[in-house]
Amino acid sequence: MGWRSVIITQHAKLSYSAHAMIVQTNDGINQIPVDDVSLLLISTTQAVITTALISELSRKTSKLYLPMKRGNRLAKFTAIIPLTGPHSCCESKLIGTYSYNKYCGRS
């Protein structure tokens, strides 16, 4: 069960490897176990996230928030049907947009 909230505020590459989320920034590389992540908030458009990580976060039912290009809005993604097996996939669906200020403590 996840308990960490991960917030990305700068240029970064997020990928998935060996049951961990790999966060590569100019400052270095950090590894966070995917099982620990309950929320991933990307508050910059300068971040890259791999589909493997999105799929794994969806499978673990973690919340994923991404910035939208227009206005101070966030898009929230969640898994529709987590499937298992060698040929399975997780579908993600945009379930709503939220005020950026609400989640980042800005007024």
Provide structural commentary.
The chain has helices at 51-59, 100-104; strands at residues 4-8, 12-17, 20-25, 28-33, 37-42, 47-49, 63-67, 73-79, 92-99. It is built from two helices and nine strands. Strands 1-5-7-8-9 form a five-stranded mixed sheet. Helices cover 13% and strands 49% of the residues. Strand 7 and strand 8 (73-79) form a beta hairpin. The longest helix is centred in the middle third of the chain and has 9 residues, at 51-59. The chain has 107 residues and is mostly beta strands. It is globular and about 35 Å long.
Question: Which structural traits does this protein have?
Answer:
9 strands, 13% helix, mainly beta, five-stranded mixed beta sheet, 107 residues
Write the topology of this structure.
Blueprint: E1 4-8, E2 12-17, E3 20-25, E4 28-33, E5 37-42, E6 47-49, H1 51-59, E7 63-67, E8 73-79, E9 92-99, H2 100-104
Parallel strand pairs: 1-5, 2-6, 5-7
Antiparallel strand pairs: 2-3, 3-4, 7-8, 8-9
> How confident overall, as mean pLDDT?
77
- Low-confidence segments: 86-94, 100-107
Number of strands: 9
Q: What is the molecular shape?
A: globular
Task: Describe the sheet with the most strands.
Answer: 5 strands, mixed
Total count of helical runs of at least 4 residues: 2
CA-atom Rg in angstroms = 14 Å
- The class by helix and strand makeup works out as mainly beta
Neighbour order of strands in the largest sheet: 1-5-7-8-9
Helix share, percent: 10-25%
What's the order of the H and E elements?
EEEEEEHEEEH
Q: What percentage of the residues does DSSP assign to strands (E)?
A: over 45%
Through-space gap between termini: 32 Å
